[in-house]
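Colleagues,

Please find the record for the two-part complex below.
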Amino acid sequence: DQQVKQNSPSLSVQEGRISILNCDYTNSMFDYFLWYKKYPAEGPTFLISISSIKDKNEDGRFTVFLNKSAKHLSLHIVPSQPGDSAVYFCAASAPGGGADGLTFGKGTHLIIQP
Amino acid sequence: ETGVTQTPRHLVMGMTNKKSLKCEQHLGHNAMYWYKQSAKKPLELMFVYSLEERVENNSVPSRFSPECPNSSHLFLHLHTLQPEDSALYLCASSQDREAGDREQYFGPGTRLTVT
């Protein structure tokens, strides 16, 4: 039973527009959420995170929104650039700190079209 | 070297072979992890080490044997694997249990093929 779900395997967005990647979770114990970006033949790279005490965190072109009541988070990338084409993973963590491991979604392949 | 490194990057082994995957982190972190990524499945946590002590073992078959000799190095010893064990094996590290931020930093992975 998947606790972190990314229901869109792929997403195609035009360069310069906004990319919105979605993630849903089922475990109410999760209180910290992360987004990772992965290029082929490389490991996932940390992008941005959010604690459950917040509903928004922004870092440059990347903003993560958290809706705890809906158990939903989203990653907004604006404006989208060709280098953003990658697989994006949503991950979640329960209290206890980072040494308890992360639970990942299956990923969404974002394709930025020129 | 910076970040998290893994060797080898690619490995092909027979079912009767014994091999080891190596991970090294240069970030001064206290926790290290092994994850497995199979095709069309999410990353699955296999093992967690915190301050060189194993704190998590997610029902991984005994043909996978981890070793953490110090906080900078992590090994995954492999023996008598099955073809379904073919996957990308990723190592990660993080600060420690009590850190407010829980970001984990990943190595590039070892692409394992069992024939």
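Chain B touches chain A at residues 4, 6, 30-31, 33, 40-43, 45, 48, 50, 55-56, 58, 90, 92, 94-99, 101-109 (CB under 8 Å).

Comments are welcome before we finalize the supplementary table.
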